Amino acid sequence: MIVFKNVRQVIAAATVCALPQVQAQTLSVDVELPRLSVAEYHKPYVAVWVAKENNQIAAHLAVLYDVEMSGGKGEKWLKDMRQWWRRGGRNLDFPMDGVTGATKGPGTHNLTFASQLSDLAAGNYRLMVEAAREVGGRELIEIPFTWPAKNAVSERVSGSEELGSVALSIEP
Amino acid sequence: MRFKKIASLALLAGVITSSINSHAHRAWLLPASTTLSGESPWVGIDAAVSNDVFHADYHALGLGGVTVTGPKGESVEMHNQAEGKHRSIFDLNLTEEGTYKIAIAMAGLSASWETEDGERRRWPGRGQRPDPAKFDSEVPKEAKNLKVTQSSRRIETFVTAGAPSDDVLAATGVGLELVPVTHPNDLYQGEAAEFRFLIDGKPAKGVEVTILPGGMRYRSSQDAIEVKSDKKGLISVEWPIAGMYFIEAEYADDKAKKPATSRAGTYFATVEVLPQ
């Protein structure tokens, strides 16, 4: 919940104050978290980021974890999103305004980003979505894209374990 | 004297002479995790001596000589120390973000010679702790086949809270040491890592390095990766699978400081390789 609220606030703020020559493009991600019939289900930790061609992180978009656990205890398992942790998650302080939020249950969740990408240089990138679940598995999905988009982009990749369908769309 | 101070730390020093060039048993420090996140995480460490690495089934490794150094160079407290039959344990609370080094290091002189009657002698005697102050009085200046060796032995592992840091990885300049080019808590399956070996602070050429993946009990061969350091002391390793690995390295030459006639060093480390 927090993520969406913050993101909207940020987008609202961005539209008010940042109106240079070009209108910022919007990147929208639909992340499906599958319903799993397992004896012990915990909502997965999910990280969404933009990777450069050299794997460095260009932008952290969302990190869903147990933000509500007292004393920051939920941060203990952030490292289980191991690709994200390695590439830059480990350099952050948590929670992170506008990026971190609570975990989500099964279903499709839409996340929309604009202001987070206002500084993104033109080039080729990959949208990365990584999920890790307590007593479950871990999965990483990548969707390449070019920024900024000339035409509307709509790409979809399906996961097999911890992620269902992940869709990326960019509105120029 | 620096040398004396190091030797006095050498609680296992009696083992120095017998362990050099001996593959019989491996001494290891095994952290439960090497990459940690969250506020002041805790990590448990096992210390043992065994043939199959990371299967504690032979002898506990004494904790008396263990030093733990934090990211800012500070000494870190070892909690819940206990010595079991086959392994010792302790816990660390990683209150600072960065990389910690857990090490047992010793260095000192050893000697062997023959008496006039042809009887072989050694210093320190088997199972004895060497007292560097007594070297001059207990080892003859001239004797048949007198060999004085400057030995070092170092056992290490590394753990990181948050992002890895480099300060703790600096060499001490004593004995055989590994200086990472690739950070030891940033190793991944299918990628190559580079390490540099130093002897008394200088690049060590021709170090014989054996790298063993853990889980030895569950396969039929050692599956050792064997490499030799180049003239810059460098080795490169590509990790075939994710898991814990044991690095053992040996070095010897005759460029010793007097009264030593040769120098020898062994280095052991445990590192974790993560999956992609």
Overview of the structural elements:
- The complex is a heterodimer of chains A (172) and B (276).
- Chain A is 13% helix and 38% strand.
- Chain A is mainly beta and 172 residues long.
- Chain A has one domain: Sandwich (Immunoglobulin-like).
- In chain A, strand 3, helix 2 and strand 4 form a beta-alpha-beta unit.
- Chain B contains 3 helices and 19 strands.
- The radius of gyration of chain B is 19 Å and the shape is globular.
- In chain B, strands 2, 5, 8, 9, 10, 12, 15, 16, 18 and 19 form a 10-stranded mixed beta sheet that branches.
- Chain B has a single domain, classed as Immunoglobulin-like (Sandwich).
- In chain B, a hairpin with a 4-residue loop joins strand 6 and strand 7.
- Helix content of chain B is 5%, strand content 47%.
- At the A-B interface, helix 2 of A face strand 2 of B.
Question: Which descriptors apply to this entry?
Answer:
heterodimer; A: 172 residues; mainly beta; Immunoglobulin-like; 5-stranded mixed β-sheet; 4-stranded antiparallel β-sheet; globular; disordered N terminus; B: 276 residues; 10-stranded mixed β-sheet; 5-stranded antiparallel β-sheet; 5% helix; 47% strand
Largest β-sheet summary of chain A: 5 strands, mixed
- Beta content of chain A comes to 35-45%
How many strands of chain B? 19
Shape label of chain B: globular
Write the layout of secondary structure elements.
The complex is a heterodimer of chains A (172) and B (276).
Chain A: H1 2-17, E1 26-33, E2 45-51, E3 57-64, H2 82-87, E4 100-101, E5 107-113, E6 123-132, E7 138-147, E8 153-158, E9 165-171
Parallel strand pairs in A: 3-4
Antiparallel strand pairs in A: 1-5, 1-9, 2-3, 2-6, 6-7, 8-9
Chain B: H1 2-8, H2 16-19, E1 26-31, E2 35-36, E3 42-50, E4 59-60, E5 66-69, E6 79-83, E7 88-93, E8 98-114, E9 120-123, H3 135-138, E10 144-161, E11 176-180, E12 187-188, E13 192-199, E14 202-203, E15 208-213, E16 225-228, E17 234-238, E18 243-253, E19 262-274
Parallel strand pairs in B: 2-10, 10-19, 12-19
Antiparallel strand pairs in B: 1-3, 3-4, 3-7, 5-8, 6-7, 8-9, 8-10, 11-13, 13-14, 13-17, 15-16, 15-18, 18-19
